[in-house]
Amino acid sequence: MEKNKLHVFINLLACTLLISACNSKDSIPSKNNTNISGNSLNNINTEKYNFAIKTSEGIVWSPSPEPFSFYLSSPNEKTLRIDRAKKLFTLPLHDGEANLVVDEVFGLGDYIIYHTSSVFSDGAQPLRQQVWVMRIDNPTSNKEILEFHSTGGKAYSYAVDEKERLYVSVSVIPGNADGSDSYEVYVYNISTDKKEKVQNYSLNKPSIDSIQFTYNEKKYSYKLHAK
Question: Quick check: 103 pLDDT over 70?
């Protein structure tokens, strides 16, 4: 997949992020489509939780976690600074007794879609994993569109189509009497704000790395990204 990475450096004293960004030519962003690297505020355990992505509204970015906050900066900014950015919102630090972690973020025009995991410090399976959507110019629109699990014998894959403004999810559910798996496929359409269950589809088994289906009388084919 072709893409240009955003390279970001955060200066500890100035709390700035240096960024060089380009839009991806691929309509299906890869996992962690933009990472913040070279960050003196983070160590190897937290660096993967930093994001900066290009959207039609500007650069949406999230610096060091705990708690996770999203900021919006001008697309022309060469230096991302908290004091020159608009704070969109801050997520709760905890989900019950679990820590709420943002682990993937995607830009779809004037929206972002992101994944969260409610994780425990002792390494136990996450309490829950969720998919959220938010219109950038209206942070109060932030809402959950799907809850899923990618642990405990279950598997989860997804595709994000920026052009069609679609989020596709595939959940693998084991435990059939004959030892086979069941599948649940959903499509969330940003333009209509509706999530629909797909009944007729074709999965590339056993790897489950691609899917083909018909939605709104149009055929779609996507490479799937595993959580």
Answer: yes
